[in-house]
Each structure stands twice: as structure tokens, then as C-alpha cells.
Write a structure and sequence with these properties.
CATH class of the largest domain: Alpha Beta
Strand order of the largest sheet: 3-2-1-4-5-6
Bound molecules: nicotinamide-adenine-dinucleotide, uridine-5'-diphosphate-glucuronic acid
Distance between the termini: 67 Å
Number of helices: 18
Helix content: 40-55%
InterPro entries: 6-PGluconate_DH-like_C_sf, NAD(P)-bd_dom_sf, UDP-Glc/GDP-Man, UDP-Glc/GDP-Man_DH_C, UDP-Glc/GDP-Man_DH_C_sf, UDP-Glc/GDP-Man_DH_dimer, UDP-Glc/GDP-Man_DH_N, UDPglc_DH_euk
Radius of gyration: 24 Å
Oligomer: single chain
Protein name: UDP-glucose 6-dehydrogenase
Pfam family, one: UDPG_MGDP_dh_N
CATH architecture of the largest domain: 3-Layer(aba) Sandwich
Structural class: alpha/beta
Family: Belongs to the UDP-glucose/GDP-mannose dehydrogenase family.
GO molecular function, one term: NAD binding
Largest sheet: 6 strands, parallel
Length: 468
């Protein structure tokens, strides 16, 4: 019979491990969930008495408030967490490799391997080990080899793949009612039984027909495929936005018209300054690397183009700003609204805003940044990384951080909207206009403002995907 899971350990208390396992704890009061991480500061933040959690995610504090101390625990004692659990999620980071074979493309599996080796080293009873991190196809095979080569007599390990599909900013609603939960296992009796054990955990709140069970390799590949297809939609609509700008067509109208076709569907067709976030680019490059290692160069080139189109979109937008401001922004003052990679998150990984600001700084403009969630220290860190040859004190001569959108726009020559924060929809543009240098320019990289209304006030407005 399948093992009835009563103790779960999650290795990795990040954007995925934290919210995912907090929701499992909330929905399964009979299961003890311990989330472990090596990063003491992160664990302390998860445990902070005033719920100053390490990540901002709408609804997350409520979930943690209900479950923490009841059946949800955060700890740096990785070994104890492993020993006590009957099911272990591996939810560590899998960034793009920076050096060595596959640098710039392949996933760095060092963290997954270290976590796996730790499980093998300290486990004294049988475990179901679940790959939660996004990994290349067939990683479960390597995990199994490591575990089996190091296991103690009498302990067996079953490996499952259970990729996560939540999006940041909507993580809690995504976890409460997922489109689907995907579980991959070996198609052996033991594999299927482990699959059933994990499926039973999700069945506490997810309808059975949304829990999909497939083979291990299909599960691993489906995660990369889903992200690649989603990102491909954005690059497709962004490629069309360039045609719109050149022809006078309107990308909103085009997206609306094609989205009405039920085979295409209306979601995820919003033209933008480019997609960001920790995963799209990383996972596509991972797929490109996989294709190349399988000797499928045409397949690799096809997916690589999705990332190249995104790079083009970002640089095309910077160039539009420079061109419109009479071909030079040297010494000009620009407000950038939004630093996070999307609304409702404080996450800045691969944010398009960073590329724009880097471009503006290299043109020697002055930039004032406002974001409702991103912390100042994070902004300085990201800009230092984006401009490796400029010392931070020099960056600080060109960049100011403001505490409201109004303050950021004061006396500037141009306002650039980089993130679709709801509060930017509610800006009083008349007040902004009155305090700006003239002519006053707005560059809308997120299809957020009512361009006609702003033009009536007196602004010169440039919107992504709209010709004059
Ligand atoms: P993250 O960097 O926020 O969190 C990973 C955590 O793992 C870090 O806190 C790190 O300290 C910890 N860690 C690393 N090695 C460890 C070890 N050996 N023992 C204990 N802790 C260790 O990363 P994330 O955004 O949560 O992503 C995790 C995985 O989930 C990645 O593979 C990512 O591709 C995937 N994913 C992310 C998202 C997302 O929205 N961020 C969505 C779906 C899937
Ligand atoms: C994405 C996927 O949506 C999740 O399903 C997946 O689990 C996750 O990646 C992951 O594997 O990490 P996320 O990156 O958090 O989630 O956020 P998205 O909502 O997908 O947005 C990604 C980027 O695309 C953002 O910069 C967003 O602004 C941009 N975007 C999104 C557009 O430019 N246009 C759109 O129509 C949609």
C-alpha cells in the first residue's frame, strides 16, 4: 500500500519552497511540514515574530500566520528535517551555469546534487524524494544513482518529479487552485505507489481530475516546455508590437482580435518591454542546451530565438527613448517607475527595468527609480551587477531612489513605465505634468496609461506597440 505521508521536509525556503509548503501545511493540518534552508537570515525572516517574511507575495502572510508553529516550521537544521520526514521536496535554486561546460546555457545542478547527497548521507529510513526544482530532462536519474550509491541498508528511495507552475505575485491563488498538479514517476509498482502517496497529499484540496500522473522524463520536460511556450507567446506578441509601431497598427487591438480565436486564447498576450523573472530565460536556455546536447541544432535555434527576441525588445525600447528625446539623453533626468520584473512581487531577477536603466546610465542620463516593493539595497546590488565596470559610488552619482511615483517624476524630462504596478494606473497625471520639465515625455512599456488622456494634458506619449 502507498505510504501515508505524515511528515514532509522541504529543502530550500525560497520563492517556491516557502509558499508551496506553507500552503501544503495550511491545507493538510495532519501533516507536519518543516522547511529547511542553509541561509540563516532567510530562515530567521520566515520565523520573524512580526511576519516580516523574506519574500513579498499577496496572501502569503495570512497562510503563514495560520500554520506556523501549528504544523509548519522553518529551520536551518537540514539533517534533522531530512531524518524525520517520509517525503522530501528538493526545492533549491537551479541557476544558469556561469562557468565551465555549458556556461551561459546549462542549469547549474550543484545545489540539487548537494541536497541529494545530504539526503543520502543522513537518512536512516526510506524516503520519497521529490524534485520540485526545475531541472533538465533526466535529472531524476542522476539523483537516483547518487541516492542508491550512498544509501544505508534497509533504506529505499523513490524519486518523483513534481514541477511547480506558480507565478510570482499570484503564488497563493495559483497554489490554492492550480490548473494542474503534475507528478512524474517511474512506471514500476514502487514508482506508482510513491506517486499515489504524493497525489494523496494534494488531494486534500486539489480536485482529482487536476492531478496528472505521467512518466518521470515527461514530467521534467513538461516544465521546461510550459515555460518555453509561455515565453514564446510573449516574444511573438512583442515581435508583432515592433510591426505595429512601424505601421500604425495597435498591438492591443491585434492581441484582442487574435485572442478571440479559442485555439489561441486571450491570456498572456500582453506586449511589454520584455519578459523578466528568474525562470523564463533560464529554462529556455536550458532547453536550448538540452537540444544541442541531443544533436538537434534546428530545435535549439528555434527556442534560442525566443530569448533573442526578448533582448531585442528591451534594447529596442531603450533606443526609442533616446531617439524620441532628440537623439540624446546625456545629462537628462528620467524617472523609471517600477523595478520588479512584474507587479505584485519584490523580485527583481532578470527584470527588464534593470536593462533599461543600464542603457540609460551608459548614455549618461540621470535616473530616478521608484518601486513600491523593491528594497533600496536590492536596487544597488542589481545595478552594480548590471554595470560591473562602474564602481557603486559612481552609479550613485547618476541614480536616485524615490519613495513615491510623484516624487520620482518631479522635474524630470521623461517618465518610463517599466512595471505594471496597479498604483501606477492611479497616478494623478495632471499633477505629474505640472511639476515636469517641458516638453514632458511618457514612455509606456506596459500598456498601462490612457495615452489620449495624457496627450490632452500635454504629454508626449510613446506606447509600446502603437504607431502614431
Ligand atoms: P530561491 O533562490 O528563491 O530559493 C532556493 C533556496 O534554496 C535558497 O534559499 C537557498 O539558500 C536554498 N538552498 C540551496 N542549496 C541548499 C541546500 N543544499 N540545502 C538547503 N538549502 C539550500 O529559488 P526559487 O525561486 O525558490 O526557485 C527554486 C526552484 O524552483 C528553481 O529550480 C526554479 O527554477 C523553480 N521554480 C521557480 C519559480 C518561481 O516563480 N520563482 C516557479 C516555478 C519553479
Ligand atoms: C512564470 C510562469 O508563468 C509560471 O507558470 C512558472 O511556474 C514560473 O515562470 C517559473 O517557472 O518560475 P513568473 O515568471 O513568476 O511565472 O511570472 P509571469 O507572470 O509568467 O511573468 C513573467 C514575465 O513575463 C514578467 O516579466 C511579465 O511582466 C511578462 N509578461 C507576462 C508579459 O510581458 N506579457 C504577458 O502577457 C505576460
Amino acid at each position: 500500500a502507498p505510504v501515508k505521508v505524515t511528515k514532509i521536509c522541504c529543502i530550500g525556503a525560497g520563492y517556491v519552497g516557502g509558499p508551496t509548503c506553507a500552503v501544503i501545511a495550511l491545507k493538510c493540518p495532519h501533516i507536519t511540514v518543516t522547511i529547511v534552508d542553509l541561509n540563516q537570515a532567510r530562515v530567521d525572516a520566515w520565523n520573524s515574530p512580526d511576519f516580516a517574511l523574506p519574500i513579498y507575495e499577496p496572501g502569503l502572510v495570512d497562510v503563514v500566520k495560520q500554520a506556523r508553529g501549528r504544523n509548519l516550521f522553518f529551520s536551518t537544521d537540514v539533517d534533522k528535517g531530512i531524518q524525520e520526514a517520509d517525503l522530501i521536496f528538493v526545492s533549491v535554486n537551479t541557476p544558469t551555469k556561469k562557468t565551465g561546460v555549458g556556461a551561459g546555457f546549462a542549469a547549474d545542478l550543484n545545489y540539487v546534487e548537494l541536497a541529494t547527497r545530504r539526503i543520502a548521507a543522513v537518512a536512516t529510513s526510506s524516503k520519497i524524494v521529490v524534485e520540485k526544482s526545475t531541472v533538465p530532462c533526466r535529472t531524476a536519474e542522476s539523483m537516483r544513482t547518487i541516492l542508491e550509491a550512498n544509501s544505508k541498508p534497509g533504506t529505499r528511495f523513490d524519486i518523483l518529479s513534481n514541477p511547480e507552475f506558480l507565478a510570482e505575485g499570484t503564488a497563493i491563488t495559483d497554489l490554492f487552485s492550480p490548473d494542474r498538479v503534475l507528478i512524474g514517476s517511474l512506471q514500476t509498482p514502487e514508482g506508482k505507489s510513491a506517486c499515489q502517496s504524493l497525489g494523496d497529499v494534494y488531494a486534500n484540496w486539489v480536485p482529482k481530475d487536476r492531478i496528472l500522473t505521467v512518466g518521470l522524463w515527461s514530467s521534467e520536460l513538461s516544465k521546461l516546455a510550459a515555460n518555453a511556450m509561455l515565453a514564446q507567446r510573449i516574444s511573438s506578441i512583442n515581435a508583432l508590437s515592433a510591426i505595429c509601431e512601424a505601421t500604425g497598427a495597435n498591438i492591443d487591438e491585434v492581441a484582442h482580435a487574435i485572442g478571440f480565436d479559442s485555439r489561441i486564447g486571450p491570456k498572456f498576450l500582453r506586449a511589454s518591454v520584455g519578459f523578466g523573472g528568474s525562470c523564463f530565460q533560464k529554462d529556455i536556455l536550458n532547453l536550448v542546451y538540452l537540444s544541442e546536447s541531443l544533436h538537434l541544432p534546428q530545435v535549439a535555434a528555434y527556442w534560442r530565438q525566443v530569448v533573442e527576441m526578448n533582448e531585442y525588445q528591451k534594447s529596442r525600447f531603450s533606443k526609442t527613448v533616446v531617439d524620441t528625446l532628440f537623439n540624446t539623453i546625456t545629462g537628462k533626468h528620467i524617472a523609471v517607475l517600477g523595478f520588479a520584473f512584474k507587479a505584485d512581487t519584490g523580485d527583481t531577477r532578470e527584470s527588464a527595468s534593470i536593462s533599461l536603466i543600464r542603457d540609460f546610465l551608459s548614455e549618461r542620463a540621470y535616473v530616478t527609480i521608484y518601486d513600491p516593493q523593491v528594497e533600496e539595497a536590492q536596487i544597488w546590488l542589481d545595478l552594480s551587477e548590471a554595470c560591473p565596470n562602474t564602481p557603486l559610488e559612481n552609479i550613485k552619482k547618476q541614480v536616485t531612489i524615490a519613495h513615491s511615483a510623484l516624487e520620482a517624476c518631479k522635474q524630470k524630462e521623461a517618465v518610463v513605465i517599466a512595471t505594471e504596478w496597479k498604483e501606477f494606473r492611479e497616478i494623478n497625471w495632471q499633477t505629474v505634468y505640472d511639476d515636469m520639465s517641458k516638453p514632458a515625455f511618457v514612455f509606456d512599456g506596459r500598456l498601462l496609461v490612457d495615452a489620449d488622456k495624457l496627450r490632452k494634458i500635454g504629454f508626449k506619449v510613446t506606447t509600446i506597440g502603437r504607431g502614431e
